[in-house]
Amino acid sequence: MRNFLKNSCLLIIIVAFATCNKEYEVPKEIVIHDFVWKGLNAYYLHQDKIADLADTRFNSDQQLNTYLTTFTDYNSLFSSLLISTDVKSTLIEDYNTITEPALRTAFTNGLEFGIIAEPNHADNVIGYVTHILPNSDASSKNIQRGEFFYAVNNTQLTRTNYLDLLINGANNLSLQMANFNGSVVTPNSKTVALEKQNYNYTPTFLEKTITINSDKIGYLAYNNDFSKNYINDLNNTFLSLKNQSVTELILDFRNNIGGGSFAENISQIASMITGQFTDQVFIKEQWNSKAQSWFLANQPDSLLTKFPEKLDATTTINSLQLNDVYIILNGVSFKGSSAIELLINSLKPYINVHIIGAQTTGNNTGSITLYNSIDYDFPLRNMTHTVALQPIVLSFLNKNDQTYATGFSPDIALCPNEDALNLGVLGETSEPILNRVLNYISTGNTGTNPTCNPSNLEYLYNSISAQRTNDNGVFINQNLPNTI
């Protein structure tokens, strides 16, 4: 890490960051308090909006110490130094718990489902199949997307018992199936026996090529997170699409569980989609005013993420060289995650990004992990405690300095929920959302918005929503300066 303002005092900041003289020693009872204040004073994105983080707030180390001791614990100090709308900045009690997400596994029968209330009945509910996990127990049984079930192990599903029966109950389930026309539930003679097993999620849920006229349209349904665990697998999937000479790409993230990621991972996915913009600017970082000034003066290139050509020293990215990508947003209400929003914003100056879903939320900030050391990095950390900070420290901009604090409006608007009575088959033209996107690709016509929930169903639960991880935003790796 680079040296930075070596002999200046931490408490009166004139140029950039505050530092103490080398002989000053922080009282041991407020070491963590001191780390919290100084880390946020140096790098918190909204530092200039918090009076107690102002560079001129304290005139001496003693004044700062007196202020810090008014907080009985460092957690309350941390919370007090954030803007009221900040729900992403986090204090980590034990940095040993900060790890890359593990490969996704579960103990499951492979049934993903939704729950709706039975019309004209106060208590009963109905389950419907949203999809079946590949290579799971359910994938070997006679059950498919769009089917309904009304009971489990001969017990009627109700508002109060469906979670216990389907999620928390026995490992072996027998689903009693039914026909449903939007108003009347009619049990049929079909039953489906399912068994929970240890399950490793496939890297890609569904990948295929659809030919329409002269277009070869790649369709990729991706359900996992955007961690580096799956980047190599995604790269292999893109090789398959490349070998099929796809000319358009639909990325279906509706059942994606991951919200955040690292900016580096998103840039690699962008290069898989494109490939013709290698080494051009993909992301720009905008830090708080004093951090930004230092980076621009000392290491301006560190504020830029560029389109990469390789995943690592030996692995070339398989690029499709596309000019259009169609992104079906993830989740009930089809809102995009912070990782998907970053992908959209950063690609927009280069290619046509078509958004299918609802207005996105505008998760345009990035975070970093700070440790209690002279450069806030891990190797020289204070060994007397294990606290780390993960504050939001920057806004993401694209090549044209555009950000997305208010989110993105869709090119094709979708209903808050898929119509349980008309789900179709994923990856086939019978599936209403995919069919509409395919028509859009072929004709440029966005089509007529469907009537949402024509049967006035009450949607109660979706099993994928329950599996989604907290969206803590996109993280970056940054070379921070020394403070002594």
In short:
Helices cover 18% and strands 24% of the residues. The protein has 484 residues and is an alpha/beta fold.
What structural class do helix, strand and pairing data support? alpha/beta
How many structurally independent domains? 3
Main pleated sheet: 7 strands, antiparallel
**Total E-strand runs:** 23
Low-confidence stretches: 1-22
Find the CATH topology of the largest domain: 2-enoyl-CoA Hydratase, Chain A, domain 1
* CATH class descriptor name of the largest domain: Alpha Beta
Query: Helical content, roughly?
Result: 10-25%
Second-tier CATH architecture of the largest domain: Alpha-Beta Complex
Silhouette: globular
Mean pLDDT: 92
Radius of gyration: 26 Å
What do these coordinates show?
With about 475 residues, the chain is of the alpha/beta class. The protein folds into three domains: about 30-95, no CATH class; about 105-200, PDZ domain (Pdz3 Domain, Roll); about 205-450, Alpha-Beta Complex (2-enoyl-CoA Hydratase, Chain A, domain 1). About 20% of the residues lie in helices and about 25% in strands. The N and C termini lie close together (about 10 Å). Residues about 1-20 have low confidence and may be disordered.
